[in-house]
Every structure is written in C-alpha cells, then in structure tokens.
Design the sequence.
C-alpha cells in the first residue's frame, strides 16, 4: 500500500465565544497548516471540510467555508462527524490515486447554540428525546456503568481532570489549562451525578486543519513528513440502554486495526504519546482499556500509576486533552495535530522527549459510540 | 467589550413529526390502551428488544414475534441531572435510569420517580407508574418508582 | 495507484410522499436489504458503511450513529458525509474512495430522506447565510425561478420548452416501479399534446414565474443503497459490474449573490474533468445514457449545455428532436429522474444506481434496448454545486 503523511497542521486558539466567524476560523487554521507544511493553497489537490448542521445552526453547514478552505475549483467533500473521521477519509482519498495532496479542515462554534438541545438531537426522537436526555446525562449513565463494573471511583475520575488541566497550562491553544486539586474537582458543581463541572469538558469554539500527502505529494512541501502508520474506525450499536456502555469493543476493533497496520503488538510499550478524546474525565480510563493500554477494568490503576502523566512511560494528553478545550468535531483533528507535533519534536513546552510514535483518537455519537484511531510515526 | 459584540440572533423553528411506524405504533397502542409493555424477539439469537425494533441488529433479519415484558425491572445505571434544558419544563434534579424490564435483553431509558436522589442505587427494583391520561407516546409511562418491600 | 472499483449491487425503496408505516431506520433497512439481496451478499460481507442525508430534513443529529441498527453498521467502520443536494453522489464518491484506497473490498453506500417529517422549504431556508442572505433571499424555488427566467431571456426559450423536459421524465417514470410520481393519465398520449396541456391548464399553478407545479420535482420519502466492490472481488459478486471510470465535483460558491446565472460553471468544470479522465471528446456520441440530477424542468435544457452535449441555447433542439428520449441518441433519465422522485439525500444515490443498472442490464422495463457501455450520473445541490460520475461496462485500464 502507498503511504500517507501529515505534512502540516494548524489550530486556532480554542475559546468560548470566539469573535471570528466560521469562515475566519477556517481560513486561519488552513493558513496555519499550509505555513506549517511550507506550502501554498496551489499545492492542495482536494479539500475535505468537517462540520455539523446542528452545531452550526445551518443546513449544508459546509457551504459557509468553501472559500475559506480554498476549495474553489477543486474536488471537495464534507464529513459530518468528528475531525478524526475527516482525516481518515482524507487519507483514503490520498491513497486512492486520484489526488496527491488533501487538505482537511474542521470547525465548530459550540458556544453559539444550546449544547443540551443540540445533543438531545442525537437521541432517538420517538423513545428517548421527549425525556430531555442530553450528551452529559448519557455520559453520566456511562460513568456509573463503568464504576459498577470496575470499582473505579469519583476520585479516579478527578485525577484525570487534574492531570489534563495541568497539562493544558503548557498548551497555548487551549482555554482551560489550570492547576486543580482532586478536592477541587470533587467539590465542583454537580452537573449530572457522578459527573461534576470539572469532570466535563468546556464548550469551545475553534478550527483545526491538516495537510495530507502521499509520497509524491510530500515532495511539494518543505516540512518533514509525519507518516500515518495505521488507522481504523468502528461504531458500536446505538440505542442507549441496549449498548453495553462499559464495554469498549468498538474502540478495541478500531485500534486493533490501526495497530495491525502499524505493526504494533504492545501499544503501552511501543507508543510514546497518546492524544485521546476525553470529553469527560472518566472516558480517559475507559479509552485506556479500549486502546489496549490497560487490561479490562484496570484503567484507573494505569492512571494512578502515574504512567500517563508527563514524565511517565506513556504520557496521555500532554496537550491538556479535550477537558482543556472541546471544540466539538474539531477536537479529534486537534488530537491528530498534537500527535504530529509530538513526533516531529515541535510540541514546545508540552513536548514528550524523544517521541517517535504517537496515537490520535476521536469519537462520534453519544458516550463514544464510534471511534477513529490514527497512529503517527516519523 | 465582550458584551458589545454584534450578533445575529436566530432560532431554527422547523417543525418535525416523526412517524413511529407500524412496529412502534403497536408498542404505543398497548401502552396507551392497556398499560402493557411489549417487545419484539429475534428467533435466531433470542434477543428481546424493548422498545420493539423491526429488524435484529446482529442477525439483520426481520422480527415479527411479539412478547409481553414485565412492567417492573432493575436499575442498571442512573444519573441525577441537575441542569436539564429549560425547554423540557422539567423540575430538577431529575433522575434518569436505565431500567432492565423482565426478559428484555437491554434497558429502557426513563425517569425514576417517588425516590430521593440519594436513595437510588444500581440494582434497585422499580415498577412503571403509568400516566393517567395516555396519548400513545413514551410519556404514557410517567416514571418508574421503587418497589418498596 | 489505488484500486479499481465497481458497483455490484443496488437497492431502493419505492418513492412516496409519506412513508407512515416505517420510521427512518426501518426505511434505511429496507434499502440496505434490497441492495444486499441484489448483490447476493450478507451484511457480514460488508467491510465499511457510508451514509448521508440532510440533518434538518428529519431533525436528527449524528444520523450515522442513530441509524446503525438498521443500516448494518454495528461493529463496522462508518462515516457520514453530507453536502446538501449533492449528498447522494457525495456518498457514492466516498464509498468509491473507500474501495479505491485499497483499505476495503465491499462498501455499502446509503442515502435516505423522509421529507414528510419536516417542512422541507423551512429546512432549506436555513442553508442560506444567517447574516447576509437568510433574511432576504432564501428557499429552493426562488433561486431556480431566477435561473430559469435568465435562461429564457438569454436564449429565447419558452414555457413549452421547459414542459418538454417534464414530459420526457414523467413518461419515463411510468416504466419505473420505484418512482414516486407515476402520472398514469399521461400514458399513451403524444408529447405535443402533453406539453400543450401543461402550459395551458389552470390547475397547473404558477408557483414563482416561470415555474409551474409541473416544472418542479416532488418531495419524496425514500432510501437507496449501493454496494461498491474492489477489482479483487467485483467480478465474483456481479456478472457485469458497473466500473467507476471517473468521479469529479465542484462545490465552489458560498453566497447565492455571487453566482453567475448565465451558466452552470460547476457542472461544466466537473464534467470536463471527468471526461478528460476517461478520454471522452464527444460526450453526445460517446456516452450511452445519463441519469441527471435535474430538480426542475429548465435544468434539463440549460445544464445539458453545461455538460457539453450541445452548445449554448441548443438544449431545446435536442429535446424536441427526441435525442434525449428513450429511443434517442442519448437517453436521459430512463428512471423518470428527479422530476419524478426527490428523496434529497437518496436522490444522488438513485442517479448513480440507475446509471449502474443500465450497464448491469438490470433496469427491467426502463432498460435501454442497446448495449450500454458508458453511463453518466450527476448531482446538484448547495449553492449551485455539481457532482459527476462516469460508469462503464469495461474495466478501466
């Protein structure tokens, strides 16, 4: 199979109530990615945008950003889902032989709408939506299932929040880097038990972009390539109540496929850094298990061992993760951008020394119904 | 200056009506007319779906066997929602439960009522309390209440 | 280089103004089951799924997630793509790239819409920029009426010319058991009589000049599914697979105010790119059949000029000469086209599927009575965006 590399990454700052319009954010992220790659829009053969009509409050939400994404007179398509799925589809288009380079850009302004109503729209309109359920309440049901199955505690969840918000202090893009104590998290406002304010990610606005290229296309850019070593995606079932919420089989399938392509047998040993989608604190523990970093039921143990802290054997979310900034849809692409910066040694203050292989992870749907995983290496 | 930013306010007010379909209609008719909960069962894998579905997700075959399901069950998970969206007119805190009824293969999402939030536990037995005036939708079940022994 | 890919299966539900008997997931399941049956595959044979629709037509967020239990996507890779009216062709292209990438051998592509569940025009209005265009210029019919009146002005086209397109597509629909609008009263009447009736009948209301009821597509509930397969397995699944020869698109414009109404530049550019890929110099001679996304009658004149079947202003001559009829040189829309069924997210999938079955020889009553070697399908949507696919009987080099 041909190879695909990430040649450039760009992220806007992620903040609440950003002044910029969708177009302005997208233009900024695309310019940043092109400049990081050392190329121009003319080096781009085709464009993939990522957006969601509910979050944007607009039918055909991709329409607003066509100019800003540089899509004029180019082949273009739009993924509606997390940005990691945009990157996976972008890689497919680059592998297919039709294009040597692909630009992927995602945008969201979650602070423009009402999260509860927009995420209520994810649930079954006939049987579940009338009850008023939203993403956070469903996540709380999942957190409880995980606690019941594994014995993980609210303190364990809090320790994820402490770690990631602390890491976030070193990432200039995020808006919620902060020093917290376990007590601070436990005492924060109750949102939907067992989840409290600091167990939940903030709602952020922003955009991110990546430039992908096959071996021929890579030559157009000055930047050194970060190769996609493996990727996979998979969805579990949908109905809340019928899906086993504490079971990570979809993430297992997605990551096993990526590991298989990358030739990774022991991810805990062979990966140097992981950027995963911690929309809520407990998710990080659950995703450890799904990614095969911890045995089933042992996510909290891995967290408490310190292995996933900066300076540990496998730092997870050196960027501060989604808990420090959650531009919905963009967040998975931002994970990929961070993974690329890590393997290139360009992650600044949040750099994991000597990182060669990194994993980026994104989710779709309520409670992480679907997962996308990309393994990046130099 | 944050407050001085000009914004353009809008609200998407597209009206929707979702057809329940023949399968769902049968479920709601039983709920409305007889306060009964029914599911569909897959003859191949024996999975029982409540609410009913028209095709088995795993076996991918049509389902036409209907089975009655108990109106009491066990709480598999729950949450106490402190800030539901105002549009739903709920009075927080609202307790949501995933409730496994009788021989159903999964849980039904619904409210848990007649219980203080701190009383609710995983494994607790609950029973459906039906609305007095029922119109053929999921709110014909008012909530599930603890079974007090 | 990537792998060659072909369509090996197609299934669709019968178009209807309102499928009250099923919910959306159940309707999707019907189309998927039909496509699997057509290819004689089971859901376990499918490696990945692509789905698309427009969120605000049913008010369901994350449709790919919501529908997995009917689409067969449980424990499979699934991606949602959506680009407005072009969604269905976008879905087909996405499935094509899945296979061409070499990562998947058998990919299911699903488009669906239950337009009966919302106010379609209300939802379309929200496609317009909320700050600049939504307050003063929005909805589907107005833009198309502007397009039509400009075209009439430029080329001296009349209402009878527009009606000629409607008559062709609606007569063709009588051969398609899946078409939503099967206007039996038209059966057996000659073309000129039908055109006269359409332009003179008082019942045929003018909605926005020059567009009458009969110039517009219906709003339809339906789902459709295609199965794409790689060159490694395609010929073992289908005796005559429909090979993908070229896919191309342009989604240029953001604001309706920016459009040049004198031409359809996206369709022109996408067609030119697709023809260059396949080496087509004379589309009228080299293409055997078209399934075009024509949401209203006049598009059947103007847009066939943009594709390059004839020069500017010559579309009506092709129509009146019968060149685009079932027995003409280049039959257009044997299925009855969008003028007979428009389940928006599924519409492009149906165009591609109908083009494919002409090659596969499975089009039943609407099958052309000649060898179909190259078929063309198009998508239209967004802010005058265009998608083009070319399918062929011969495996591409």
Sequence:
């Amino acid at each position: 199979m041909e190879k695909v590399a990430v040649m450039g990454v760009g992220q806007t700052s992620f903040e609440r109530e950003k002044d910029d319009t969708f177009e302005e954010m997208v233009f900024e992220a695309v310019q940043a990615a092109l400049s990081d790659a050392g190329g121009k829009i003319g080096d781009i053969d085709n464009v993939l945008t990522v957006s969601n009509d509910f979050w944007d409050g607009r039918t055909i939400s991709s329409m607003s950003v066509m100019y800003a994404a540089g899509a004029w007179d180019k082949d273009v398509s739009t993924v509606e889902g997390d940005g990691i799925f945009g990157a996976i589809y972008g890689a497919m288009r680059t592998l297919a032989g039709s294009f040597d380079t692909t630009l992927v850009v995602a945008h969201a302004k979650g602070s423009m709408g009402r999260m509860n109503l927009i995420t209520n729209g994810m649930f079954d309109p006939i049987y579940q939506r009338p009850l008023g359920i939203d993403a956070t309440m469903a996540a709380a049901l999942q957190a409880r299932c995980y606690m019941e199955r594994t014995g993980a505690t609210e303190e364990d969840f809090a320790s994820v929040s402490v770690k990631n918000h602390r890491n976030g202090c070193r990432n200039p893009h995020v808006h919620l880097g902060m020093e917290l104590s376990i007590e601070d998290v436990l005492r924060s406002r109750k949102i939907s038990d067992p989840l409290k304010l600091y167990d939940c990610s903030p709602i952020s606005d922003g955009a991110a972009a990546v430039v992908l290229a096959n071996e021929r296309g890579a030559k157009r850019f000055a930047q050194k390539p970060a190769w996609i070593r493996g990727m996979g995606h998979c969805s579990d079932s949908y109905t809340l109540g019928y899906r086993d919420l504490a079971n990570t089989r979809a993430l297992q399938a997605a990551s096993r496929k990526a590991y298989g392509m990358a030739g990774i047998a022991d991810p805990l040993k062979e990966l140097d850094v992981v950027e995963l989608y911690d929309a809520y604190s407990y998710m990080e523990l659950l995703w450890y298990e799904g990614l095969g970093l911890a045995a089933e039921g042992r996510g909290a143990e891995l967290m408490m061992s310190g292995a996933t802290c900066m300076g540990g054997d496998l730092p997870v979310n050196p960027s501060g993760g989604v808990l420090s900034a959650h531009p919905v849809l963009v967040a998975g692409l931002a994970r990929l951008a961070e993974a690329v910066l890590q393997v290139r040694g360009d992650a600044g203050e949040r750099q994991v020394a000597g990182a060669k292989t990194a994993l980026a992870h994104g989710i779709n749907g309520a409670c992480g119904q679907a997962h996308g995983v990309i393994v990046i290496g130099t | 200056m944050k407050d001085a930013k000009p914004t353009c306010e809008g609200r998407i007010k597209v009206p929707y009506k979702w057809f329940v379909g023949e399968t769902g209609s049968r479920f709601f008719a039983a709920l409305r007319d007889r306060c009964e909960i029914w599911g569909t069962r897959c003859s191949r894998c024996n999975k029982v779906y409540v609410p009913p579905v028209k095709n088995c997700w795993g076996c991918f075959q049509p389902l036409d066997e209907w089975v009655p399901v108990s109106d009491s069950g066990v709480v598999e998970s729950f949450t106490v929602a402190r800030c539901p969206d105002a549009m739903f007119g709920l009075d927080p805190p609202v307790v949501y439960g995933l409730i496994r009824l009788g021989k159903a293969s999964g849980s039904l999402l619904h409210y848990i009522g007649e219980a203080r939030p701190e009383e609710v536990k995983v494994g607790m037995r609950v029973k459906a309390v039906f609305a007095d005036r029922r119109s053929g939708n999921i709110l014909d079940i008012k909530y599930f209440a603890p079974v007090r022994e | 280089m990537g792998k060659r890919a072909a369509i090996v299966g197609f299934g669709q539900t019968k178009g209807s103004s309102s499928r009250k008997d099923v919910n959306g997931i159940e309707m999707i399941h019907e189309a998927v089951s039909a496509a699997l049956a057509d290819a004689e595959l089971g859901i376990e044979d499918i490696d990945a799924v692509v789905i698309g629709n427009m969120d605000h037509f049913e008010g369901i967020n994350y449709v790919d997630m919501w529908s997995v239990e009917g689409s067969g996507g449980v424990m499979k890779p699934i991606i949602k793509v959506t680009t407005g009216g072009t969604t269905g062709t976008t879905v087909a292209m996405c499935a094509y790239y899945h296979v061409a990438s070499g990562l998947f051998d058998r990919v299911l592509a699903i488009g669906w819409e239950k337009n009966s569940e919302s106010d379609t025009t209300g939802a379309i209005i929200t496609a317009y920029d909320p700050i600049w265009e939504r307050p003063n210029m929005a909805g589907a019919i107005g833009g198309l009426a502007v397009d039509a009146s400009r075209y009439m002005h430029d080329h001296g086209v009349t209402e009878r010319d527009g009606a000629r397109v409607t008559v062709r597509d609606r007569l063709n629909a009588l051969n398609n058991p899946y078409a939503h609008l099967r206007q039996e009263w038209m059966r057996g009447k000659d073309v000129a009589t039908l055109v006269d009736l359409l332009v003179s009948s008082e019942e045929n209301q003018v909605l926005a000049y020059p567009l009458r009821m009969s110039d517009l597509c219906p709003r339809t509930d339906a789902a459709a599914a295609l199965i794409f397969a790689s060159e490694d397995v395609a010929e073992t699944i289908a005796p005559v697979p429909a090979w993908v020869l070229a896919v191309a698109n342009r989604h240029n414009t953001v604001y309706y105010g920016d459009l040049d109404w004198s031409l359809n530049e996206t369709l022109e550019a996408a067609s030119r790119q697709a023809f260059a890929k396949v080496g087509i110099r004379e589309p009228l001679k080299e293409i055997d059949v078209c399934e075009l996304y024509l949401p209203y009658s006049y598009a059947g004149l103007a847009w066939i000029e943009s594709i390059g079947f004839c020069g500017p202003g010559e579309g009506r001559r092709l129509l009146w000469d019968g060149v685009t009829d079932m027995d003409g040189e280049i039959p257009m829309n044997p299925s009855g086209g969008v003028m007979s069924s428009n389940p928006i997210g599924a519409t492009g999938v149906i165009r591609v599927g109908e083009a494919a079955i002409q090659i596969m020889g499975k089009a039943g009553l609407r099958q052309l009575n000649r060898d179909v070697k190259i078929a063309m399908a198009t998508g239209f949507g967004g802010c005058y965006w265009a998608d083009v696919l070319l399918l062929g009987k011969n495996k591409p080099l």
User: Anything to note?
Assistant: The domain at 4-114+203-218 of chain A is CATH 3.40.47.10 (Peroxisomal Thiolase; Chain A, domain 1). The interface with chain B takes residues 17, 19, 57, 114, 116-117, 120, 125-128, 130-134, 136-137, 140-142, 144-145, 148, 189-195, 237, 239-243, 245 of chain A (CB under 8 Å). The mean pLDDT of chain A is 97.
